[in-house]
Amino acid sequence: MTPLEHLLIFGSVMVAAWFLFTYFWPRLLLSVFKRAILDKGFGDGPIPINTLYTEPQTLFADPLHVPASASKLATTGVNRDTLMTAGWLDLSKGPQVLHVPEMAGRYYSVQFTDPSDNTNFAYVGKRATGTQAGDYLVSGPGWEGQVPGGMPRISSPNNSVLVFGRVLVFGDSDLPAAHALSKQIQLTPLSGWQPGP
C-alpha cells in the first residue's frame, strides 16, 4: 500500500469513529440519566414511569451533604435558586396530563426532552405559557384521540420523554412555599384525568 492509501484508510476510520461517537454518546448519557431517575431518584428511591418527583427540601437546603443513596441526578451540581423536579414519561399507553398550579408570578419551567436526539421540544413555564394554573396534554407520536376542550396539546416526537422542572426559591424562608408548589406539578393519565373546579 502507498502512503496515500494508508492516509485514506486512516481518515475513513477516523470519520466513522467520530460519527459513531457523536451519534451514540448523547444516547448513552440519556440512558444513564434515565436509569438514575428510575432507580434512585433523588436518593429516596425509584421514581416510577409517568410520575414527577421533586427534590427533597433537605437536599436543596444542604446540597453539600448529599445522602450516599442519592443518584447522579442529585449530585450533578449545587443549585441554590431553583428546586428540581424530574420524571420519565412513557406515552406508548396513552397521553398524560401535566398540571401546574398557580405560580402568582414566580419563575418556573417544565422542560420536555426527546431522549432519542437530546432535543428540547416544548416548555411550560413563566416565559412560555405564563404563571397561571393550567393543564397540558402531552401525547406521543401518532396519537389521534380527543383533546379536552381548551387544553393545550404538547405533541412529543417520541413515546419516551425526559421531563425536567424548576421552581424558583427566593430564599431560605421561601423554601417550604416553593417546595409545596413544586409538588403540585403533577402528571395524570388522560384516561383518569378529571377537570378541576
Strand order of the largest sheet: 1-2-8-4-5
Q: How would a crystallographer describe the biggest sheet?
A: 5 strands, antiparallel
Q: Outline the low-pLDDT stretches.
A: 63-67, 69-78
Rg calc: 20 Å
Tell me the total number of β-strands. 9
Give the domain tally. Answer: 1
CATH architecture: Sandwich
Would you tell me the overall average pLDDT?
82
CATH topology label: Immunoglobulin-like
Helix content: 25-40%
| CATH domain class name | Mainly Beta
Structural class: alpha+beta
* Assembly state (oligomeric): single chain
Order of helices and strands: HEHHEEEEEEEHE
Domain DUF1254: 69-189
Transmembrane segments: 6-25
InterPro entries: DUF1254 (IPR010679), DUF1254_sf (IPR037050)
Keywords: Membrane, Transmembrane, Transmembrane helix
What does this structure look like?
28% of the residues lie in helices and 26% in strands. It has 197 residues and is of the alpha+beta class. The longest helix has 37 residues, at 3-39. It is globular and about 75 Å long.
What's the SSE blueprint?
Elements: H1 3-39, E1 53-54, H2 57-61, H3 72-75, E2 82-90, E3 96-100, E4 108-114, E5 119-125, E6 134-139, E7 153-155, E8 160-168, H4 175-183, E9 186-189
Parallel strand pairs: 6-7
Antiparallel strand pairs: 1-2, 2-8, 3-6, 3-9, 4-5, 4-8
